[in-house]
Amino acid sequence: MTTTSERVSGPLTRQVSPRVSQSVFDGSRLRVVLLVDVYDGAQQQFLEAYELLCNQVASVPGHVSDQLCQSIENPSQWLITSEWESAPPFLAWVNSEEHVRMVEPLHSCVRDTRSLRFHIVRETGSPAPNAEPGKRRLQASPRIGDGLIRHALTFTVKPGSEEKVAKILADYASPEPKVDDSTRLCRTSLFMHGNRVVRAIEVRGDLLAALRHVARQPEVRAVEEAINPYLEQDRDLDDPESARVFFTRAALPAVHHVTSAQQDPQEERHALSYPARPGCGMRLAEVLARHDEAAADDPRSPVLRSTIFQRDDIVVRLIDVSGGLAAADPAAALGLSDPRQAAELTAFAADASAPQGAAASSRGTTPGPPAEKQVGRDHRGGHDEAKPSELARRLELARMELVTDRRSPDA
């Protein structure tokens, strides 16, 4: 199999940049650990469901192997581990509708699950006899983070309901930030783009505990109930299975995060939604990640932090910008200055003079026609580069509307 990283001309820097605290694009092998709590008496049913699942997973591109383990102390506790050639093929599978259907037989026998994903940094012993050296990359060195876990949720609302939904989502009391002694909600940033809603959260501690904590807060539950009539995907929050399927589909994982060396107390937070062409979401996310990694040490870059979220062909880039987006270099702010890549990977609407409603529609779930190329010559690298006017137009089309941005008092 050819991985996404190899298609884009090799993985991101093998010597991990100290600025990059999170990335799925370095080509390293991936270890996935799934902790499972099985209902008492349902162990045989769970085993049969697993056998069916693992036979299907074996044919998924990028899958290497898996193991099923049962606790020697508590027969209700099981552990599933799997190895993948790299993170992108695993994420493409686990975030797909195929995966949602594939795991359905497990739901009736499983009380709770917890999924953990790790790049392999070191290993001992001999590799598997049939292992190909080029497919057994290790992460070059450990990453240094800032203690924050970043995640997002996304969903669409019925066209015409955008203003009502934005008002509901903006007018609620913030939940209690303290989850427990080790977990705290730090920041929630909520944006809309056409009829798509994106809620990005930053958590210090346990992400799953934080998500469950938020879901139990009465003020949050009231907001979720209030927007239910406007959702394009029906859900019943009183039905655990309905809620589980909705939030599984709504999950928008962070695939790359980079922090520059620059600081600005007056920085502004913005979000950009990129209209990826069908099947190009993961590759587009990697191109943006490559741009942001290269720019992280450039003191001229207005982007101080960048987090890229991606699921299927939904690609959102959350950026903290020095001096505001209007004053920023559009190439640095957009992260996509090569018109060839833009035409190949995205479908920005061509009509820059379209009315706001049409522009919002093109910025929603349906990509518009490819943009016309306005090409210049980049004297630094010799590749084609879009003119500033075209970049500014794409930047405006990608820009999401801020609904609310809240920080906990001591974040």
Feature tags:
disordered N terminus; alpha+beta; 411 residues
Describe the model.
The protein is an alpha+beta fold and 411 residues long. 29% of the residues lie in helices and 27% in strands. It contains 13 helices and 15 strands. It has helices at residues 4-7, 43-57, 87-94, 97-102, 162-170, 207-216, 218-227, 240-250, 281-295, 330-334, 339-345, 356-362, 388-398; strands at residues 20-23, 30-38, 63-70, 77-84, 110-119, 149-156, 184-193, 196-204, 251-259, 268-275, 303-311, 314-321, 375-377, 384-386, 401-407. Strands 1, 6, 7, 8, 9, 10, 11, 12 and 15 form a nine-stranded antiparallel beta sheet that branches. Strands 3-4-2-5 form a four-stranded antiparallel beta sheet. The longest helix has 15 residues, at 43-57. The relative contact order is 0.13.
